[in-house]
User: Fold this.
Amino acid sequence: MDCRNLYNEICSFENLYKAFRKAAKGKFSRQDVQKFLFNYEKELLQLKHELEYFEYNPHPLKKFIIQDPKTRTIHASDFRDRVVHHALVNILQLISEPMFIYDSFANQIGKGTHKALKRFDKFKRKVSNNGAIIRDARYSNQVSGYVLKADIKHYFQTVDHEVLLNILSRKIKDENVIRLVKKILDNHVNKEKGKGMPLGNLTSQFFANVYLNELDQFVKHTVKAKYYIRYVDDFVLLDSSKQVLEEQMKQIDSFLQDKLKLELHPDKSGIFPIYHGTSFLGFRIFYYHKLLKKSNIKHFGRRLETLKQSVNSGTIDKENFEKSVNGWMAYAEWG
Assistant:
């Protein structure tokens, strides 16, 4: 694919139609989707025209608060804007995803939490020499090895637009694409100008991986960490030596601040023995077992009640209700 002429690919009717189908999947009962669907050819042609003649402007984001299980502020895009987001990501992911490391597990087809958890299990066996017990252990579960558990402080609020656009520009030479990306980023009003991405947007999920791919490459090729897993801004490194992880943590913290204008969360980042258990992807992971976090169980209880009400009111159908419940059950079975 010619990286100097991507904009025409994004604006093509075929790509916009594919984007529309993806954006509407599982949401056909929603009013805004039905309205678009009623005249979808006309709507897509209008979007195509606006994009091709640089007249496209996204609608203001709708802000609302959810408990997930902690309080989060979500900024939802208008449906026609979500079609544009899918159209953009359809093309850019063909270029970006081949550059991602194997152990980046978020928001990619064929990845996800299950594969990340399996990878963690493999790594903890490696660094502990298949569960070797520490010297002078008091209990039989005190296996050797350490985990650096890290979290980036306020990640989505602090992503730097200029840094992101520079990262994209290294590979994408079509200025019209960069201009569209900037327009989408600028549509999110943040406390600090030129910073942040809205939670809830497909583009934010995609750009989150593009941005932190810089960290992935640094960790693998400069720090040379063998056992590293990242899921969005939540990442772990494992090693048999605590001293090695302490040095790696210093290098990572410096890189984040100097190159990406981010910082590690002081309260959610640290180095712990494997046998203490590691909080990762909604579980407390020990060597021999995993426990679902209580906050996740409570969250699902609230989510289940909301889903029941949505079925009764006709907002979602029974098929989507069952899909949501079965998805959570499949996730919970890992604990």
Remarks:
- The first helix runs from residue 7 to 11.
- The mean pLDDT is 89.
- The radius of gyration is 22 Å.
- Residues 23 and 228 are 32 Å apart (CA to CA).
